[in-house]
Amino acid sequence: MRYRVSHRTTYSYDEDVTDSFGVAHLVPRQLAWQDVATHEVAIAPEPGDVDHDADYYGNTATYFQVTQRHLVLDIEAVSEVTVSTPVYDAAALARPWELARPLVDPERPGAWQATDFALASGQAEHTAQARAYGAVSLTRGRPIGEAVTDLMHRIYADFDYDKSATTVTSTVDDIFEKRAGVCQDFAHLTLACLRSHGLAARYVSGYLATQPPPGKERIVGADASHAWVAVWLPGADAWLAVDPTNDQWANDRYVTVAWGRDYADVPPVKGVIYTEAKRSTLRVSVDVAPLG
To answer: Residue span of the signal peptide, if any (predicted)?
Structure first.
């Protein structure tokens, strides 16, 4: 599938901002199953300094500084991307999950690259509750593909999608208490369950192309950023991407932008401003349009 992805973020303030420093993760990754034909990040007012660079995990990060006084900061990223459904090695999926723990077997090929994703992170802590919940799926000797997919099914069934249940800073314990959340929360919960048993799993940020109901037209700008999880498959140099929010493996509707240990590594936009403003508003519009 080929898509035109547009992601626009607009900050408005009630007093002038005199200086704005920001970093954005808005450029899709070039991958074996994803080809990025074009990409552009436009910022208004025009930055005095802007640069694109690869961060620690190989994501494209856009760094910028706006020194013009402004009441509105507008950041728009537009990309054209072709995505295929990832294909996985059957033998790698069939290996017992215990063999996919890079901290237990650091000499296994590729383990050093996966190690960072087996450690706890700020928003995916190794809580006792997460470990116990994950243990139901990670039974002794179970194939990793089957175990991870079962965990995905259970999270989808046991937790409700509710935008009002959590915030961007919610913890794994908060998610268990509410039994609800959004894609970011379900990704963090999945990470905690897997990592607490030694598996390497990374937080993936991107977009999911939505499909309108039969007979209805697409609503431009109604899409949103999305998050899912990818689990290391040793011996195959691959990561199994699963989406607990929608109870499915990632396919050709998923546009990958960036990955890290959790959301804090790859928010679409973050930064620091200098202002005396007391109030601000944030508007985000995302559109993932098929191009035939």
So the answer is: none
End-to-end CA distance of the chain: 8
What are residue 42's phi and psi, to 5 degrees? -110, 135
Half-sphere exposure of 129 (CA within 13 A, CB side): 11
pLDDT of residue 11: 97
Please report, to the nearest 10 degrees, the dihedral formed by the alpha carbons of residues 210, 32, 233, 135 taken in order: -10
User: For the whole model, what pTM was predicted?
Assistant: 0.94
The torsion angles phi and psi of 116, rounded to 5 degrees, stand at -60, -30
Determine the Cα–Cα distance for residues 239 and 79; give it in Å rounded to an integer. 24
Which DSSP category does 97 fall into? G
Rg, C-alpha atoms of the chain:
20
CATH of the domain at 45: 2.60.40.2250
Domain membership of residue 109 as a residue range = 90-265
pLDDT grade, residue 221 (50/70/90)? very low
Same domain membership, residue 237 and residue 103: yes
- Token code pair at residue 84: 């295929």
Q: How far is CA 183 from CA 137, 159, 161, 211, 215, in A?
A: 20, 11, 8, 18, 27
Q: How far is CA 250 from the centre of its chain?
A: 12
C-alpha–C-alpha distance, residues 111 and 109, integer Å: 6
Nearest Cα to 286, choosing from 211, 224, 214, 195? 224
Residue 136's pLDDT is 98
Number of structural domains the chain divides into: 2
